[in-house]
Amino acid sequence: MKRRSVSLLLAILMLLPAALTLADSAPVTITSEDVRGKVGDTVTVTLEIAIEPPKVGETMDSLQFELVYDSSALEFVDIQEVSQDRVSILGVQYMCAVSSGKGAVGFAAAAADGVSGSGVLFHARFKVLSAVSTMLTLKKVAYSFVTKSGTTQDRRQGGTINLGRITGQSVPTTAAPATPVTAENTQAPGSDATDEPRYPVTEVTPAPGASPTAEPTPADNDLLAYIVFGLFIVVAILICVVLTLMIVRRGRRSRMKYFEENDDMAEAQDVPEERYDEEPYDQEPYDDEPSEEDDDQPPIEIIRRIKK
């Protein structure tokens, strides 16, 4: 009898942790799987929900939480099932509200008639920003159940729920395919083709202990080309300036010479002013109309006087 009591006590103690685990199990469980994507791509994370009401006949009529993510690695895009402030959870339409901030997405849903069971909660889409692995977490999780009679029972789940990871992968850089180089046939027509090179190739081996000379890089060649081009432009500008000054100077000299020659010619052709100051020689005035005295004279005399 004593041995049976001890065995029964041991069995109760062994089953006690399992009973406590069942008692502490959350009526609402939300999970997600790991997702991978390349940097710049948009990945879809599926959140699944399992609703086990504490009492038979109860259903979940409200649910709210914050979906937290690393804003330096991910960018929230949207929730596919949300349309016009409504979302379908396990076939039941819920009124919902979604608010997005830096590193967190707020989700809240409520319905008059709740739902129970398990399935897809919604699909959230994120854009991958960097090649790192980050974990999605749920915070401030709260839900409530409603009975058939309409009585609501609030049940809250505190703490942080870790969901799946989103891993970003870097995009490999693909090099352009090399263009095959075909050897040109430089031999004269009619000659036998040989595999030997036309000119002997000598391989230069550095002396022992001597360090190989560094070949100029494309960046150095570009810099040298820029310097030479700049010097060429400067020299061209200087030449243009000098030629312009020479042309201007020669034009000035030509104009000065032209004006000096014109001044000399003008002085040679000048007429003395005294010539125009002399009094006019005596000459009888010419009258267009004949005077009365002329009327008495014969016409021949008048003509003579006119000629004089």
CATH architecture title of the domain at 25-169: Sandwich
**Could you please say which CATH topology of the domain at 25-169 applies here?**
Immunoglobulin-like
Along the chain, the helix and strand elements come as HEEEEEEEEEEEEHHHH
> What's the CATH class of the domain at 25-169, please?
Mainly Beta
Classify the secondary structure makeup into a structural class. alpha+beta
Indicate the overall shape. elongated
**End-to-end CA span:** 192 Å
Low-confidence stretches: 4-24, 273-278
What value does the average pLDDT take?
Answer: 75
Rounded Rg: 57 Å
Biggest sheet features: 8 strands, mixed
Percent in helix: 25-40%
Question: What is the quaternary state of this protein?
Answer: single chain
Number of helices: 5
Give the total of beta strands: 12
| Portion in beta strands | 25-35%
Can you put this structure into words, describing what you see?
The protein is of the alpha+beta class and 308 residues long. Among the domains are: 145 residues, Immunoglobulin-like; 38 residues. The chain is 30% helix and 33% strand. The protein is elongated and about 165 Å long.
